Amino acid sequence: MEDDKSGAAYWKANVRLIYISLAIWALASFGFGILLRPLVAGIPIGGTDLGFWFAQQGSILVFLALIFFYAWRMNQLDREFGVDEE
Amino acid sequence: MDQFTLNLLVVGASFALYIGIAIWARAGSTAEFYAASQGVHPVTNGMATAADWMSAASFISMAGLIAFVGYNNSSFLMGWTGGYVLMAMLLAPYLRKFGKFTVPEFVGDRFYSTTARMVAVICLLVISITYVIGQMTGAGVAFSRFLEVDATTGLFIASTVVFCYAVLGGMKGITYTQVAQYCVLIVAYTIPAVFISFQLTGNPIPPLGLFSTHLESGQPLLTTLNEVLDDLGFNAYTAGTSPWLMALFTLSLMIGTAGLPHVIIRFFTVPKVADARWSAGWALVFIALLYLTAPAVGAMARLNIATQFWPEGAEGEAVSLETIQTDPAYNWMLTWQQTGLLGWEDKNNDGRIQFYNAANPRMQAIAEERGWEGNELVTFNQDILVLANPEIANLPGWVIALIAAGGLAAALSTAAGLLLAISSAISHDLIKSVLKPDITEQGELLWARISMAGAIVLATWLGLNPPGFAAQVVALAFGLAAATLFPTLMMGIFSKRVNSVGAIAGMLVGLIVTCLYLFTYLGWFFIPGTNMLAPSPENYLFGIPPSHFGPVGALLNFLVAYLVSLATEEPPQEVQDLVESVRIPRGASAAVDH
Q1: Distance between terminal CA atoms of chain A?
Q2: Interface predicted TM-score (ipTM) over 0.90
Q3: Residue B587 neighbours by CB under 8 Å, 6+ apart
Q4: How far apart, in Å, are the Cα atoms of B102 and each of B266, B269, B423, B443?
Q5: pLDDT band at B348 (very low <50, low <70, confident <90, very high)
């Protein structure tokens, strides 16, 4: 690799982005969907509570948004740090 | 036209399509056979990945698993989708950049050791072979139900079709047939769900229908369902128990999904690293279409079944035997009774079938009062829920035929992906790298086809003589994927310090401890009666059931690999450079054969 410094900075930015994404990933599924369900139990939705919605639908929608956000942001970072393909 | 002819036509047409695609997309080189020459569009690959991933378990079993347990089994929904987040961020782009053909090949190069590669091959074979048994038996069952052949003949037909397009087309043929199979399976899954959601809630979109108002009772569907189930003595649908165990099981399925080799290799087929990232997103879009529908199907089917048995509600009289025999709305019960998967018995001879939870003390008191002698719906196999759904909702014959084609598409597409993972591990990692390194490209292609054919014969044989433990081996496949391949691949990318000794030690510890934990409670090699401890919560280590063990195995793998690596020397410079290079997209090119 021609530029070790930008490579290291790029990797650091990637790892940071992964940490943020996985925190949201865990909050939606393990958090609101399971362990923190009592916290959102007061919010009613279609005959049940928000925690049930997160467990059966919300978490999947959050996962989708996360993967597309990550792909978009990484492709941006690739260009910023000059490590993109082409 | 009768139902049988209709089934035959729809299934036959779908098979003709798959074989047609295979002839059009046959593979001429090893690059085409193993990775479709890295020329697959990310959306196409996403669709193929969705079909590859969604097996007979997702298509046939999942809605039933959710329907009969309710909220607690949301683990399957979150676990089997959440793994894609891990795969998209921690594995897929870097492995695509590495640009080779198989998962063990990365392990072997990154940990500069043929031993590491062989341990990875063993893990891959155990995971994929256990997984393929379920697909073949699933296909056999679908054949025997819908085409009125016996399960053995059905299995042979399924094997022949897979043989045609997988051996001929390799990854290229499999990719394009999987796209067709995805279309068949998603249409088949969605149409009955739309009808049922519309019937019950007036909303034709099932995921929205689940949280809508139930037309008949005028209150939310889930409230009605909870009440109906409570009247029959079952747990409330939306209630949860033991959240920590549920979280652990979800995590186990997530890590296991991310470590499944037949899914990982799909990301080797796209042209660029950026495409691998997008492709994981598209895969989850196509998977989510089914996974957002499944919980709606589950809840609505559970409500439909309860109201069929108690047409006047639990306070009124149960359905009579005469109605079951004569009313066309109950035809599905007669059809499925013949398969032995559904059964009832009028225990108190009152000419009616009382369906309730006989284990509930409150219901036992009511039963005494009303002269019931136990739950009379004696057999209800959860797997028939999706297959019988169109019949329960009285949908036209072509929808039933479509479900048959969809179930077969789900089983065959996953089987083909698994067979490719198995055959590439044998021809590329075993024969080409160890046994006959000087083999020519044409020779390797021939071996790839021979090992694919061999894998199909083995899978067929295992499908004909299914070891009595088909359900447990799925837990084994996920547990091993979580405990062996996922941590090793991740450390190979995210750590430069983990060396060959560490990785091998980590994988072996993950493999052995996970197997031992499962065998302790489920029997040595799952042979009934050889377990050392009874599979009950008071015997489990920290209360962890064998099916939830994946994250523990993964943690041990990480710890052992890291500590052993720290105690031994750093990986050589060229390996550290390799790690640097997989982290950076620049320079990704077509896979090179070495």
Answers
A1: 15
A2: yes
A3: A85, B97, B581
A4: 10, 11, 10, 18
A5: confident
pLDDT tens-place string over residues B146-177: 777 777 787 888 888 888 878 887 888 888 89
Average pLDDT over residues B231-241: 88
Residue B533 lies in a domain: no
Residue B397 burial (C-beta neighbours within 10 Å; 0-12, 13-18, 19+): middle
Instruction: Residue A68: count other Cβ atoms within 10 Å of its Cβ.
Output: 18
Inter-chain touch A47–B211, beta carbons under 8 Å: yes
Chain A: residue nearest B206 by CA?
A57
Residue B547: inside a domain, yes or no? Answer: no
Q: Which residues in chain A are contacts of B222 at CB distance < 8 A? A: 46-48, 52
Residues in B touching A14 (Cβ below 8 Å): 583
Q: Give the whole-angstrom CA distance, residue B507 versus residue B484.
A: 5
Residue B153: C-alpha distances to residues B142, B144, B414, B468, B527 (Å)? 11, 8, 20, 20, 27
Give me the residue label for tokens 């050392």. B532
Q: What is the mean pLDDT of chain B?
A: 87
The DSSP call for residue B481 is: I
Backbone angles phi, psi at A44, to 5 degrees: -80, 145
User: Which residues on chain B are in Cβ contact (under 8 Å) with A57?
Assistant: 207, 210, 292, 295
Buried b / exposed e over B521-539, threshold 16 CB at 10 Å, is bbbeebeeeebeeebeeee
In a domain, A63, yes or no: yes
Q: Which two tokens stand for residue B525?
A: 């090699």
Q: Which residues of A touch B290 (CB under 8 A)?
A: none
In terms of Cβ atoms closer than 10 Å to its own Cβ (0-12, 13-18, 19+), residue B465 is exposed
CB–CB of B585 and A78 under 8 A?
yes
Say which DSSP state B238 is in.
T
The residues that bridge with A44 in the sheet, in sequence order, are A49
Q: Does A68 touch chain B (CB under 8 A)?
A: yes
Judge whether B354 lies within some domain: no
What is the Cα–Cα distance from B235 to B230, expressed in whole angstroms?
A: 6
Q: Tell me the per-residue pLDDT of B489-512, one tens digit each, with 9 for 90 and over.
A: 999 999 999 999 999 999 999 999
Residue B318 CA to residue B312 CA, distance in Å, equals 8
Rounded Cα distance between B69 and B229, Å, is 11
Three-state secondary-structure class, residue B150: coil
For chain A, how many residues are written?
A: 86
Indicate yes or no: CB of B291 within 8 angstroms of CB of A60: yes
pLDDT of A2 above 70: no
Q: Does residue B30 lie in a domain region?
A: yes
CATH of the domain at B126: 1.20.1730.10
Tokens at B258, concatenated: 């991310």
CB contact under 8 A, B281 and A64: yes
Show the domain range for A55.
Answer: 20-80
- When divided into structural domains, chain B yields a total of 1
- Name the nearest CA neighbour of B84 among B257, B216, B232: B257
CA distance B286 to A85: 27
